[in-house]
Amino acid sequence: MLVLDGKIASAAVKASLLQQTQALKAAGKRAPHLAAILVGNNGASETYVASKVKNCEETGFGSSLIRFTDDVSEAELLAEIAELNADSNVDGILVQLPLPKHIDDEKIIEAIHPDKDVDGFHPTNIGRMVQGLDTFIPATPYGVLLMLEHFNIETKGKHAVVVGRSNIVGRPMSILLSSERPQGNASVSLCHRHTPKEELIKITQQADILVVAVGIPEFITADMIKPGAVIIDVGITRVEDATAKKGFRIKGDVNYEQAITKAAAVTPVPGGVGLMTIAGLLKNTMKAYEGKFYHN
Length: 296
Known about the structure:
Layout lengths: L1 E2 L2 H21 L6 E7 L3 H16 L3 E7 L5 H13 L5 E4 L9 H7 L11 H8 L8 H12 L8 E5 L6 H9 L8 E5 L5 H8 L4 E4 L17 E4 L3 E4 L7 E4 L4 H4 L5 E2 L6 H18 L6
Parallel strand pairs: 1-11, 2-3, 2-4, 5-6, 5-7, 7-8, 8-11
Antiparallel strand pairs: 9-10
């Protein structure tokens, strides 16, 4: 059984990006720059943003972290994004989600200029992805593609099943896996919370590649897995555990101990897709910097 180790795959991506950055600096050019906006002090968001900043440093990128308290107004946030859009030294902008309830997530996402939307959430970029055009791919699905590429997982002609239909992971993942592209050309089934459980089990049992992004710890059990399948676990949930040092454990959407008894390859949680999401974000930031984009 192959462990699809995000540490190994992301390290390869970052090593390549570091070489590119060093070459840019040697030529007297500046490094790519990523600006992150963090609202409030959500523990998980703090961890994610700190990791993104750290990874920027490791690849030689510049980074800015702009903090706001959770009572920031929508207008203030939009004004900050407008400034970053206009700053020629900022290549990529991300706003860490979720945002406080009084702020409209969609309005904030749409305010980021499509050229700097390195999370790949802007409707313009989503539309171009659907059409198979050059664009920023949403960071987590992009990370999954990079992982499949690194470990030489064949997707062409395979039956891929995606469980979860969010705009951030499930829906774009289903489109990408079925697209005419490397790590694509699969026949894709998309399941979600309204798929009857009995039907869901029948469908997942047919999956050569199973991508799970539902946010329910250990939702996928051994009886739902086809022998020899490739399992991509996107879920990451803190589960309270008094016996753990931090008082909680990190669980994925797949029961890992059961999955490894049937699958040919599985991503661990943590240490799997989460690290590849950051790799996808960094690749998008370099793409924005290089100007290899449709608005230029």
